[in-house]
Specification:
The structure holds two protein chains of two kinds. By secondary structure, chain A is an alpha+beta fold. Chain A has one domain (2-121): OB fold (Dihydrolipoamide Acetyltransferase, E2P). Chain A has helices at residues 2-19, 25-28, 74-78, and strands at residues 29-45, 52-58, 64-70, 92-100, 106-113, 119-121. The radius of gyration of chain A is 14 Å and the shape is globular. The termini of chain B are far apart. In chain B, the strands form three sheets. Chain B has a nine-stranded antiparallel sheet with strand order 4-3-2-1-9-8-7-6-5, with no helix packed on it. In chain B, strand 18 (265-272) and strand 19 (278-286) form a beta hairpin. Chain B folds into two domains: 15-119, Lipocalin, CATH 2.40.128; 136-316, Lipocalin (Beta Barrel). Chain B is built from six helices and 20 strands. The chains are: A alpha+beta, B mainly beta. The interface between A and B is medium-sized, with 30 and 36 residues.
Chain lengths: 124, 340
């Protein structure tokens, strides 16, 4: 089990660089502003052009917010073991990533942490 | 002694600053960061009393003072963040060399390092074919491409490009294939080469595109429709595969959005390493309607027998949902007429 987890983390290290190989990250995200959010997955979007998870969180004022968090292309992720079943609706996840421009509730993940502490992803 | 007199005398003693004419011409530039080196064509030309330089077809401000030279090259990282490579070096023994720093408003991972440039003289193109086996799956290799950011656009192209909004107008965010000009230079995805009689077939994972390259001097059928992938013919020059593509439609060259006209011609020159494990390509876009100088890209791939070409299912719902949620759908559709 530990081997599997390690494999998933290592594969995600390589995924970051390729994630924006054909889209402009700079057009949508702030390179120098990051944040960590924790919430419940309400929808899994495991399709091109980018994998997305929609998650509900409670903000610092105690109010609900819905966020759109994004990562790499499915084919790049599944080659390394990150499949549609890795994160499913109802899962609690913690996401650390770059914030969207103009205050949008949009995030490009640097890593996603599962409930059991497994961390997927890496800095670029 | 008056200060003015002293300045005049000092200037006289120092002598006039004269740029070394040996700087003029074409150079093959190699930039060596911590990771894989990148290369590119550096053209240095006199322009009246000044000098100008171009890297991979795009402008690069240059300053020459005797045997010293500085060149600023704007580039972008894989995410689209722009940075400037500030080259500082000198001419010695017929070779340019020096060091460079990296300037950017964003945090980019490209490291400072050293650079050098040697004279570039295009070799005579061989005509005798000596085909090599390109069949198999190729995955992207690191480095090589300068990712030059600004190009030498014509006034009309510049005017069009000034109105381009990356996220609204980029075709692939809506699951529209960007076409061969952009696709062939992108990283991240493998492609497969199938060989058959008088034909090579390239299967690209990204956008599940298929491309046929005809090797038998055939011309496109009459009224062959233009498309993003165009019509490709190929020939072997010794062991190099030269592919020319026409019958394109108006499109964008890269996600920065510089235009490609329907009369453009894309030339790709593929060469295989001696051990057959690495494939290199020099990709030149000839499009005088939009570019004063042809933009050049370079790519490399390595063989990957352990994978297959995966299906690329794409659903634009997420793009339109975001536009809808952010009340930007009207703006998106208002831009339809200017979008390729």
């Amino acid at each position: 089990m530990r081997f599997i987890r390690l494999t998933v983390v290592v594969m995600a290290l390589a995924a970051g660089a390729a994630a924006y190989a054909h889209h402009s990250f700079a057009a949508e995200f702030l390179e120098d502003q990051t944040r960590t959010i924790e919430g419940t997955v309400t929808e899994v979007w495991f399709k091109n052009p980018h994998v997305r998870y929609y998650i509900d969180i409670t903000n610092d004022d105690g109010e609900p917010e819905s966020w759109d968090v994004r990562g790499s292309s499915p084919t790049i992720l599944v080659r390394r073991g990150w499949t549609p079943k890795t994160i499913q609706e109802g899962d609690r996840i913690t996401v650390h990533g770059h914030l969207g421009r103009d205050g949008r509730k949009l995030m490009s993940w640097i890593y996603v942490e599962l409930e059991d502490g497994t961390r997927l992803g890496s800095e670029y | 002694m008056r200060i003015n007199t002293a300045i005049i005398l000092l200037a006289f003693c120092a002598g006039p600053v004269v740029a070394n004419p040996a700087m003029e011409g074409d150079w093959m530039l190699e930039i060596v960061p911590t990771g894989a080196p990148i290369i590119g064509l550096l053209e240095v030309e006199p322009n009246g009393d000044n000098w100008e330089a171009f890297v991979e077809g795009g402008p690069a401000p240059v300053h020459i003072d005797g045997d010293s030279i500085t060149v600023d090259i704007d580039s972008r990282d894989i995410r689209g963040f722009v940075f400037v490579l500030k080259l500082d070096g000198h001419l010695e023994g017929g070779k340019l060399s020096g060091s460079y720093t990296v300037e950017s408003e964003a945090e980019v991972s490209f490291s400072p390092g050293t650079w050098s440039a040697t004279r570039y003289t295009p070799e005579a193109r061989p005509t005798k074919p000596a085909p090599v086996d390109l069949s198999g799956i190729w995955k992207p290799a690191a480095g090589v491409d300068m990712r030059k950011y600004s190009m030498d656009l014509t006034p009309a192209a510049k005017s069009w490009h000034d109105g381009y909004l990356m996220h609204y107008d980029q075709p692939n965010v809506r699951c529209i294939s960007p076409g061969i000009v952009a696709m062939v230079a992108w990283g991240g995805y493998p492609f497969e080469v199938l060989e058959s009689e008088n034909r090579l077939t390239f299967l690209y994972e990204v956008d599940s595109e298929v491309r046929r390259i005809f090797l038998d001097d055939s011309e496109a059928p009459e009224f062959y429709p233009g498309s993003g992938m165009g019509y490709s013919t190929g020939r072997w020059e010794d062991s190099q595969l030269v592919v020319e593509t026409t019958h394109l439609v108006p499109n964008v060259r890269d996600f920065r959005g510089e235009p490609v006209s329907e009369n453009a011609r894309l030339e790709e020159v593929y060469s295989l390493s001696e051990d057959g494990q690495r494939l290199n390509a020099v990709i030149t876009l000839h499009d005088p309607e939009n570019y004063e100088r042809p933009p050049i890209r370079r790519r490399a791939w390595t063989r990957d027998p352990d994978t297959e070409i995966y299906p690329y299912e794409c659903d634009p719902d997420s793009f339109y949902r975001q536009m809808y949620n952010e009340n930007r759908l009207d703006m998106y559709f208002e831009r339809s007429k200017r979008r390729f």
